């Protein structure tokens, strides 16, 4: 599995639906796509939300990004991430 960082930006409609129940549903949607949420953070700045998740491939990560946007109204920008230790091995 590969790690992906999903950066989310709330819309006005997304703000109205904030709840722990919606968070649980979002995590279940990721798991349904064979993903695993490692952590989630609320941010202050350009983005409002950060999800660190593992997915089997780019297609699953893309599908999760779209499904979460449909479900929550939060627009996501998702990118694969490589741990620094892995990067050091690749370039060292």
3D structure, described in words:
By secondary structure, the protein is α+β, with helices and mostly antiparallel strands. The protein has a single domain (2-91), classed as Alpha-Beta Plaits (2-Layer Sandwich). It contains four helices and four strands. It has helices at 12-16, 20-32, 58-72, 84-91; strands at residues 2-9, 36-42, 49-55, 75-81. A four-stranded antiparallel beta sheet has the order 2-3-1-4, covered by helices on one side.
List keywords for this structure.
92 residues, alpha+beta, Alpha-Beta Plaits, four-stranded antiparallel beta sheet, 4 strands
* CATH architecture descriptor text: 2-Layer Sandwich
Judged by helices, strands and strand pairing, the structural class is alpha+beta
**Which sequence of strands runs across the widest sheet?**
2-3-1-4
CATH superfamily: ACT domain
The CATH first-level class comes to Alpha Beta
Could you give the count of β-strands?
A: 4
- Return Rg in Å: 14 Å
Helix percentage range: 40-55%
Give the amount of beta strand, in percent. 25-35%
Provide mean pLDDT, rounded.
94
Task: Tell me the overall shape.
Answer: globular
- CATH topology label: Alpha-Beta Plaits
Number of H- or I-type helical stretches: 4
State the distance separating the first and last CA atoms: 23 Å
Uncertain segments: none
The SSE string, one letter per element, is EHHEEHEH
How many strands, what sense, and barrel or not for the largest sheet? 4 strands, antiparallel
């Amino acid at each position: 599995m590969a790690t992906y960082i999903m950066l989310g930006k709330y819309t006005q409609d997304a703000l109205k639906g904030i709840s722990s129940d919606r968070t649980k549903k979002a995590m279940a949607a990721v798991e349904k796509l064979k993903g695993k949420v490692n952590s989630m953070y609320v941010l202050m700045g350009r983005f409002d939300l950060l999800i660190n998740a593992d997915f089997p491939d780019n297609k699953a990560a893309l599908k999760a990004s779209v499904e979460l946007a449909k479900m929550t109204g939060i627009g996501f920008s998702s990118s694969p991430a490589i741990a620094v230790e892995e990067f050091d091995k690749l370039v060292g």
